């Protein structure tokens, strides 16, 4: 078995990630990188769509969008005047399980950006007039979403894939819920769920770790809010049969399609075999085996690919493509056959070796930028992978066998029971 | 090989006897190298009948040579942990690989091979025809693409900038293998190409590696010049596109000078003041623009959901474009009027010293962000050489600092005029 290993010095690991724990529960991770005069703050805390009651209103996303609309110390205009006058950017956005926050600036402006981030996360004033402006922008975005084949197909996919009552079932708000959310609900959501208890902040860039710690303590150290425990998510039943939905949109030349099913979370022991298998199926080179068959040989699509979207939760495995309305069934048929093939027959030694080399060799490319480095560090933290995960990454990848890939394909793919959605 | 090293910028420029230009910059932060090959051919080098040929040729460059079949090329790069892709733009076509540095010879060899050895097999031309038609249809799904295509066509009566890079559907259906192969042979030669390379390498060693693979390629016939000067526009042009959806869109596009023109940098400041500093190229980036004049005047007042403007560096005069998405219930004419109010304001009042300082700081940050990675460094070097030269890139911030409020006002008065505009409106039919 060949072994491929990245240069140890090029990956973040226990020895070069400075770790700090604040008394209020915040974990700070700092990776010094003086290659450019820039710095990024990236992190997450436990608040998101899962906290909405009822689920699916889009309240959590509206709250994070409104954070920069004004605080007890700064108006909306002041927040953006300060941020943009130094060429920086900043934001908070809600996901299903957590909300993410980021700031990017020249290193000389890090103290100011941390102060701004802290201000908008901890002290938003949600001015009524500004909330209405944000609501109007949200409604405009929702109206544009109604005219997007990819968005429509994607929303239908999760609607069919996960049952009502499961947070993945919902598309993050509708025109009706966007119009109905009140300022009181916004205030209540923020007051109840925003807390430093499970917050992780990662700072990467031209700053010393101790300096970063001092600045984070100054900005977030006296924040003591707590939040209630969450109820577990309801289980998602397996897909039975082939539920199908088409969302017709007029005047669209191309149909967006996707088919798939709930899959596995990021911390599953099957994750690495599953993503290696998926790479062979729909990613390696130009869209893997599917690209060879559907794009190169038959010219049926401009894009096709497969992905596992699991994170904290199971997400989904999806095959997605854009094709002409008349060739949707053909694309689905070919891709189902390729799924059967990777389940029935082990991948070749050459395919396995190629993909192992790709996974190991491309690791440094994922860390070309401060954002890329922060993303890998946060993944290790969020999914409890251990901070030496990347140091041992090559060994993990190289130990995988073709039989393990076949097992993952058999456990996590299904060519007979799946959701199929399309729009166009 | 002629070699010149600029110690101030760290950029080495070399040229081979076959006419190939090489730009190199060492970056030792990570053990990776980005290698890009740029050809001076894009949609500006096309005419009716072969619109989209440059982009289609880009696709064919992935279909194989006598030495490497298509699957083999993809496989070789990926299995070494590399990433590669390509893009076609109005002024150029570029191919790039970002690789672990110790594997970069592979990228150099593959690019040397396909610079003159691509096969253009008829069956590959046939399958790519449907792939590209699919790509165009995917774009057509977006009202923004349909509006942009009409605005560009109306703005340019003579110059090939008037058609989209992907080409007209009629040409995609009718273009022949010989049309494409002829386009390839005309423009793909070392004397019409630039190599830009950035990353973890020793420059002298890298130049020798490149020369070994690309040096033996024969110089081609000089590529034909684009001799289509767009006549001065003498009055407003207006296009309306009707279609599905609930959202209207408004665009104002003004002819603007190319990257080498002295007025180009003051126009960059106009963009920064009205809309926030752009990403400097079409590679993306850019600041949020919530504190910009357009955002305050159109978005904060509830007239539009978004509003912005942009100017991109080009070889020939292209467009300074404004775009806005009217809020529900706001007629596009009101949005257009609001855009004109801001345009008139920057023409009649000098920008403040604070606004100029903000534009400079925003751009300084954008340069820092855009040059963090060796892939972006290689992009910048090559792109600069396409539209101007490397001094255009390395001296960007210095030139920006020299811009005065009076110059900003003058260029706004010169270019943002009623006689120089093409107004485009997408009217959605489900409101």
Explained architecture:
The complex is a heterodimer of chains A (424) and B (431). Chain A has helices at residues 59-66, 76-85, 110-122, 128-145, 149-161, 175-180, 183-193, 209-220, 271-282, 284-297, 328-344, 349-361, 370-382, 393-398, 402-412, and strands spanning 18-21, 27-32, 38-45, 89-94, 99-106, 200-205, 244-247, 255-262, 301-308, 316-323, 419-423. By secondary structure, chain A is of the alpha+beta class. Chain A folds into 2 domains: 33-220, Metalloenzyme, LuxS/M16 peptidase-like (Cytochrome Bc1 Complex, Chain A, domain 1), CATH 3.30.830; 244-423, Cytochrome Bc1 Complex, Chain A, domain 1 (2-Layer Sandwich), CATH 3.30.830. In chain A, the strands form 2 sheets. Chain A has a 6-stranded mixed β-sheet with strand order 1-2-6-3-5-4, with helices on both faces. In chain A, α1 packs across α7 and α3 packs parallel to α8. The radius of gyration of chain A is 23 Å and the shape is globular. Chain A starts with 17 loop residues before the first strand and ends with a strand. Residues 1-8 of chain A have low confidence and may be disordered. Chain B contains 16 helices and 12 strands. Chain B has a 7-stranded mixed β-sheet, with helices on both faces. A 5-stranded mixed β-sheet of chain B has the order 8-12-9-11-10, with helices on both faces. The longest helix of chain B has 19 residues, at 122-140. The model of chain B has no long low-confidence stretch (mean pLDDT 94).
Q: What is the strand content of chain B?
A: 15-25%
Number of strands of chain A: 11
Q: Given the C-alpha coordinates, what overall shape of chain B results? A: globular
At the fold tier of CATH, the topology name of the largest domain in chain B is Cytochrome Bc1 Complex, Chain A, domain 1
Number of domains of chain B: 2
CATH superfamily of the largest domain in chain B: Metalloenzyme, LuxS/M16 peptidase-like
Low-confidence stretches of chain B: none
Shape of chain A: globular
- Radius of gyration of chain B, in Å, reads 22 Å
CATH architecture classification of the largest domain in chain A: 2-Layer Sandwich
Proportion of β residues of chain A?
15-25%
Largest interface: A-B, 75 and 73 residues
CATH topology of the largest domain in chain A: the name is: Cytochrome Bc1 Complex, Chain A, domain 1
Question: Which CATH class of the largest domain in chain B?
Answer: Alpha Beta
